């Protein structure tokens, strides 16, 4: 028992030393944040007379809070309700404070925050480190201390700080400063930064060590739109940059490839599984942006897949990477618990980029995936039926076979094992769809 504990600790310490990340120390976001964020699905629709069911007003967030609870999302970890742009009045109040649009948020932000809290959830808000928000409402620049205090007064739990209308070169200083104002309020608030996305666009060298030290999560790249093309472009960019980005992710500090599109218009059922799998591998925040009342049951099943959420929320907090591309199949892996004696368990996603219609058969040994535990692995098919989980053990030399449909995914979890019941019936046990 003691030996195991020591092995585990040694292992963790080594990881921490090797990765050397000095992360933001506010005790929050120890696993990637989960919840609901308005932007992708609701944008800046402010005409509530014309579009009463689709506009950014207090009812939208109250309803989201209701549905996170009643539809079973919150018990799986989706517990942040986050307001995005377009909540503000065009001007600050006479005493210089931020204020919500009086027509769309007649009860005010504190009342909305109270409502969200009354549901056992957490409340997030949006602002911008600039003179204006991206949609042209007042930004925090010049009012940082007051605005941080206002958020604390409103009992905000999460602040997303965008970067429009600002000097991109000064963000390295400005974002940490705003973080210090948040810290000074004494109220723990998750701090979501956007500074790398703006610097990336300008081709600047980005100080990710500073990012991890000052932010709980940060948007690295473009906003996501409601299409496969947009989603996979972000995934590809993360793969291209993984050598520089992945090491900065860990408990309390995460790369953020942007919101989940699942349940909307742009992704098919299987493409939705692919986004969820890649986001789980990337240790990405799971922020849905959909119309919760209209999410079809099979999409809801993807969002509520406990085994996939468990991969995303893995306590080790190691961001996975794309390790191999072969014959139009992208292979993504992420080390997860349990681990022992230097050997990790893994989540492995086979994503098809092929367009020839038939499911494509692909085989590979665990060894070629870098999985070399001498006692082998059990394999769980994360989107499969219960019976597609194996009870026997795969050693690193046995090939496993998958069949992946165009733009679909086969998502497996390979847990290290100590027992030794090898899989003998190859035709049955090695095949995953
Ligand atoms: C907002 O403030 C600006 C100048 O500070 C002023 O010109 C404008 O009339 C104000 N708008 C509203 C809607 O109060
Ligand atoms: C403020 O920062 C200190 C030092 O990093 C940290 O220990 C503390 O938890 C932070 N407090 C809040 C409210 O974020
Ligand atoms: C696995 O793939 C290799 C190379 O593509 C192929 O030669 C081999 O026949 C396949 N094995 C099985 C068991 O399908």
From TrEMBL:
Enzyme category, top tier: hydrolase
Example GO BP: glycoside catabolic process
Presence of the UniProt keyword Zinc in the record: no
Keyword field: Disulfide bond, Glycoprotein, Glycosidase, Hydrolase, Lipid metabolism, Lysosome, Signal
Gene Ontology CC: lysosome; membrane
Major localization class: other
EC number(s) from the headed UniProt entry: 3.2.1.-
Entry keyword annotation includes Iron: no
GO molecular function, a single term: alpha-galactosidase activity
InterPro entries reported in the protein's UniProt record: Aldolase_TIM (IPR013785), GH (IPR017853), Glyco_hydro_27 (IPR002241), Glyco_hydro_27/36_CS (IPR000111), Glyco_hydro_b (IPR013780), Melibiase/NAGA_C (IPR035373)
Protein name, UniProt field: Alpha-galactosidase
Species of provenance: Acyrthosiphon pisum
